[in-house]
Amino acid sequence: MGDVTILGPHPLLSVTIERHPDGADEIHLHPAGQGVWVARMAAALGAHPVLCGYLGGETGAILGPLIDALPCERRMIASATDSGSYVYDRRSGERDPIAHALSPPPGRHEIDDLVAATVASALQTRLLVLCNPYPGDALGPEVYERIAADAHAHGVRVLADLSSPRLDGALRGGVDLVKINDWELAGFVTGPVGEDDELAAAVGRIREHGVETVVITRGELPAAVFGGDEQWTLTAPSFDHGFREGCGDSMMGATAAILAAGGDWREALTIGAAAGAVNFLHRGLGTGDADAIRELASSVQLVRTAG
């Protein structure tokens, strides 16, 4: 399998309270956040992920060894401020938030260090996944434009799983595949995307930047896929009991792993949809067994609807 660089600027320390089957409380510590979940699923599918982001403060001191335990390489920039963290209570069976502590925006030198580390890694791996910062305004669109432009100019395939305005910046730099949900797409075009013509027009706004493939996830509805002159629907098996946390990120991680291994976008998205479904059946967090994912992929339907 291939190598994948993942820009996941703000890994988080997850503290989760669970109920043990005997009724006792359990407290779990995990690395979390979009980039972490993309990296974990990419590794589950056999890729070698390189995770680029920030670590700092008391939470960073705890988070660092947890990331080291993941099946990925880390390129972390030391931050002058604490890494973000959250506490959730799942004893009721739902995710009840108790507390969130987020990182402030990085300084100029910290941004330059992250850009350099990410671009240097991307030029080695030849495939780059761009993930959002957390909170969203912690990195501006100009940072994503710089990274995408420098990587794309050297032939690196760039995948974006971003919301606006970060997506706008990345598109100016150069992106090959965009995965976005329907409400993020509505934010990108600042208008409705519920009707077929509205969706197609919004995707056209993305593809005018030279994007080859656009994937729109739509909750319970099949995903809409636009590739070349063709339009497809992507339908994964749906389940009633599970956790949505990290499903979209699992899809992106698996998609990146298959593309890095030389698969085409149809195979990559089919495996990606299966990975999202398997993640749902787990506790979320970008987890899933490769054999289960490939077996479930036989139940994923990718159907051409136009073109």
From TrEMBL:
The record places domain Carbohydrate kinase PfkB at 24-287
Stored Gene3D superfamilies: 3.40.1190.20
Q: What GO MF annotations does this protein's record show? A: kinase activity
Q: Does the record's keyword annotation contain Magnesium?
A: no
UniProt keywords, alphabetically? ATP-binding, Kinase, Nucleotide-binding, Transferase
Quick check: keyword Lipid biosynthesis in the entry?
Answer: no
InterPro entries in UniProt? PfkB_dom (IPR011611), Ribokinase-like (IPR029056), Tagatose/fructose_Pkinase (IPR017583)
Similarity field: Belongs to the carbohydrate kinase PfkB family.
Spell out the protein name for this chain: PfkB family carbohydrate kinase
What broad taxonomic lineage does this protein's source fall under?
Bacteria, Bacillati, Actinomycetota, Thermoleophilia, Solirubrobacterales
